[in-house]
Write a structure and sequence with these properties.
The complex is a heterodimer of chains A (345) and B (486). Chain A is an all-alpha fold. Chain A has 14 helices and 2 strands. In chain A, helix 3 (53-70) crosses helix 4, helix 6 (109-139) packs across helix 8 (159-183) and helix 10 packs antiparallel against helix 11 (247-269). The model of chain A is unreliable at 330-345 (pLDDT under 50). Residues 1-14 and 470-486 of chain B have low confidence and may be disordered. The radius of gyration of chain B is 24 Å and the shape is globular. The chains are: A mainly alpha (345), B mainly alpha (486).
């Protein structure tokens, strides 16, 4: 495996990790108003992702920076092509990010409703838009021989890209609801579980369509077909598991589904990184778009040292906050020692 | 790289190119982002210090102070993080030719920043916020230090990348693509522009955090709210400010000398010095003399030898003038205008330097009052200290303008012109749309930030809650403190 291929895998790992982790907090953000009955439950939902969402978002930042560093041509073409769409992603990330921190800073119903609405919209828009952008890598964008995008906003809305966007959005919703079922208790937990059980079926259909469509437009081959089959099978497994009460296993299944969709996309676009719909001669490829040997070596060393450390302390965060989150009243009782400590996962 | 910018035709008399709009947008988003970054870096170290103080002393009002200033830190981190994401995306979106050209070198520190710093900051922020009474106390204390170190590391990587644009090192040009290829990562982090620039930024950040803490403490002291506690933070900030306010001047001054070596145009433009001089005087202010057709400035108060000292570190040092540098550059790089915008360069330097010279006086005044035991009673000092919170924001912005405007017309000094760095596939209309969008969103965000910072800075110390999470309001309808942050 060349260093360029290794870094293609590293980039894929970051994007998969991003959707697996931030995927559930997108889902929770988008659903928190609909699944909660009152302010206490809304807080309960947000508290479930409170300690971790910011760290999850870094996976996107590193995923983007890794493309910049390892494949400058891919970064330049993809990001400038998706100009307006990515601006919307940025806006969504901004309103969502500040909503988390600022939402409870005022004791006013209108203030909270405003930030709740922004959190909902922002959380739903990001997976949808980034899904379209990822789908476009394989569906192809009009790119000329110098690697510049020659189309406009409408050209970004490839049918396959839109499918990937919608699929990832729906999967994030199911993933988020499953996470809430796993991490909360009381009425919210039951409603989240019921939502996940119902909404998993459209997710299964979308994931199967995604798998078939992906292998149809890619160069196929056994490994690519296998990669596309993984999320489809995981989606079915999630649907079956969600009929029971095993929240942990259901969550693992939705995680594999979301991550599998992104992984299947990367596996099927390889050896290109961005397909040109103008001419296959203009495709940006792993070997053609990569940085020099020295730069990739340096980053490999840094990533080999830092990445395990990051995984350790981020994993530790999930361990520290492994308990189910209760609605505020219940938490108060628990902290004053009148109720048993929160149970473990 | 020869694609010319498309022109906006919708406005009849205004002829703004996509390039100009892209520059304006990048300037808007970086300047805005950098309003919050120094607060985050400076305040995170100060909150970590408070937390350590509480850990050692166990004093309850120090615990409350930790949470009080921690809340201000969190409000600020929220906006700093989201405006930082914009920066990373914008390189590829608005500056695709630049990104293609520099990715091999510039991308590495950016990716390292994410891996080594962003993960650290954001993960330990969550742990610290939600770790009250959950984590063992010693580990909880380590979390705020991890956060603070993360913010400082993040500044190191981005400054290394930025310094490479000011003074490219550790690369060679690829013979086929003509692009720089990284040959030594070590060179990026030993680049003198980086070493001195980074020290300068860190000190400026501590200064910003210190002045913010001093201003908030002074406001409370003036009103007699929790005077004993806020006297502690007033003194802590003065102790921090004494060395930083002096060091930031010294390091900044040496950075000027470093820049004279590697970016002489930046320094000549800072003084609007058209002719080579030795010794060179410094003008306190001037009118006219901003263009090559009008080189005669009306200088107001000239201080002999000062420019020589500032630019070269020696009493009679020679400073190469703009005319000579322009001629040199034309010979080396071909015809073109290599002189940056002079009024911006001249005034941003002065605004930064004048304010920075006043800060140590304010600190000495405070220390003198402290010594005489009158720190909490001097209404004049407390009023001035409160209002001087505006100074670091003005200084930081001016310093940023000085260094980035002084690099123009280059996007990477000597290697790539700014006009060759933009995205050819993005239209002027698209950039105009997003620029207006940023102005609107940033105005609203800025308004909310000011509103929340003021509100939480003026909150009484007794309103600070307990339990995991900090900063959630204590509900008036709820006798017990709010346990949830979010």
């Amino acid at each position: 495996m060349s260093l360029a291929e290794l870094w293609f895998v590293v980039v894929a790992v970051f994007w998969v990790g991003f959707f697996v982790l931030e995927g559930f907090d997108f889902g929770v953000g988008a659903l928190h108003s609909f699944l909660a009955r009152d302010e206490g439950e809304r807080r309960q939902a947000i508290e479930a992702i409170g300690p971790v969402w910011d760290g999850n978002e870094v996976w996107l930042i590193v995923g983007g920076a890794a493309i910049f560093a390892a494949f400058p041509d891919w970064y330049a073409t993809w990001f400038s092509a998706g100009y307006l769409a990515l601006m919307l992603v940025i806006v969504a990330l901004i309103v969502r990010g500040v909503s988390f921190e600022w939402r409870t800073k005022l004791e006013s119903g209108r203030w909270r409703r405003t930030f709740s609405a922004m959190l909902t919209i922002g959380s739903a828009l990001v997976p949808l838009l980034l899904g379209v952008a990822l789908g476009d890598l394989l569906a192809g964008l009009p790119v000329d021989s110098s690697g510049e995008f020659t189309g406009d906003f409408v050209d970004l809305l490839t049918p396959y890209g839109v499918l990937v966007g919608v699929t990832l959005l729906v999967l994030c919703l199911v993933h988020g609801a499953t996470f809430l079922a796993l991490k909360t208790r009381g009425g919210l937990q039951q409603r989240a579980h019921a939502f996940a059980r119902r909404s998993v079926w459209p997710a299964v259909v979308l994931t199967v369509v995604f798998a078939v469509w992906t292998v149809t437009i890619s160069a196929a081959g056994p490994w690519r077909i296998a990669a596309a089959a993984v999320p489809a099978l995981a989606a079915v497994a999630a649907a079956v598991l969600l009929r029971g009460e095993r929240d942990g296993r259901s969550f693992a299944a939705t995680a594999v589904t979301v991550g599998g969709v992104v992984a299947a996309l990367f596996a099927n676009v390889y050896p290109a990184v961005l397909v040109s719909s103008t001419s296959s001669a203009n495709d940006l490829t792993v070997s053609g778009a990569a940085s020099g040997h020295y730069a990739l070596t340096v980053m490999t060393v840094v990533a080999a040292v830092m990445f395990p450390v990051v995984l350790l302390y981020q994993g530790w965060t999930y361990w520290v906050f492994r308990h189910r989150v209760a609605a505020p009243a219940e938490v108060r009782a628990a902290t004053s020692g009148r109720a048993p400590a929160a149970d473990q996962l | 790289m020869s694609e010319r910018p498309t022109r906006l035709t919708t406005f009849e008399r205004v002829d703004i190119s996509q390039l100009d709009l892209s520059r304006l947008q990048f300037a808007t988003t970086t300047i805005y982002h950098f309003l919050f970054v120094p607060v985050t870096i400076g305040l995170s170290f100060l909150v970590a210090t408070l937390h350590t103080w509480w850990h050692r002393s166990g004093a309850d009002d120090v615990r409350r102070l930790t949470r009080f200033f921690g809340t201000l830190l969190v409000i600020n981190i929220a906006i700093g993080v989201v405006t930082g994401i914009v920066q990373e995306f914008e390189f590829g979106m608005n500056w695709s030719q630049y990104s293609r050209f520099v990715g091999d070198v510039f991308g590495a520190p950016l990716a390292m920043e994410g891996l080594a710093a962003f993960f650290l900051e954001s993960t330990f922020l969550g742990l610290w916020l939600f770790g009250w009474d959950v984590l063992p106390r010693r580990i909880h204390l380590a979390c705020i230090w991890a956060l603070a170190i993360g913010t400082a590391l993040s500044a190191a990587f981005i400054m290394a990348a930025n310094s490479w644009m000011q003074h490219p090192v550790g690369y060679e040009l690829d013979p086929t693509t003509g692009r720089p290829v990284l040959t030594s990562i070590w060179a990026l982090f030993t680049n003198p522009v980086f070493v001195w620039g980074y020290a300068h930024v860190l000190l400026a950040s501590l200064l910003t955090g210190g002045m913010l803490m001093l201003a908030v403490s002074a406001w409370h002291l003036r009103r007699g709210s929790s005077p004993a506690a806020f006297l502690r933070t007033a003194k802590l900030s003065l102790v921090v400010l004494l060395p930083t306010s002096v060091l930031v001047l010294m390091v900044g001054s040496h950075l000027g000398v470093v820049e004279t070596t590697y970016q002489p145009m930046k320094v000549a433009a800072m003084e609007a010095q058209w002719d080579t001089c030795s010794p060179c005087s410094f003008s306190a202010a001037q009118t006219g003399g901003w263009t090559s057709s009008d080189q005669e400035a009306n200088k107001i108060i000239e201080i002999p030898h000062l420019l020589s000292i500032l630019a070269t570190g020696s009493f009679d040092g020679e400073v190469t003038g703009l005319n000579e540098l322009q001629a040199q550059y034309e010979k080396e790089y071909g015809p073109g205008d290599y002189i940056p915008n002079l009024p911006i360069q001249y005034w941003s330097m002065r605004v930064m330097a004048y304010l920075a010279s006043v800060v140590p006086l304010l600190v000495l005044w405070g220390l003198w009052l402290w010594r005489r035991g009158r720190l909490e009673r001097s209404r004049a000092f407390l009023t001035v200290a409160t209002w001087s919170v505006l100074a670091p924001f003005v200084m930081n912005t001016a310093g940023w303008l000085l260094t980035e405007n002084g690099r123009q017309p280059w996007i990477v000094q000597g290697l790539l012109l700014t006009e060759d760095g933009n995205s050819p596939s993005v239209s002027a209309g698209e950039v105009a749309t997003t620029l207006v969008m940023f102005w609107v969103i940033y105005l609203v965000l800025g308004w909310v930030w000011v509103f929340l910072m003021r509100r939480y800075a003026r909150r009484g110390l007794d309103e600070v809650g307990d339990g995991p999470g900090i900063g959630g309001p204590t509900s008036p309808s709820d006798a017990e403190p709010a346990v949830l942050t979010y």
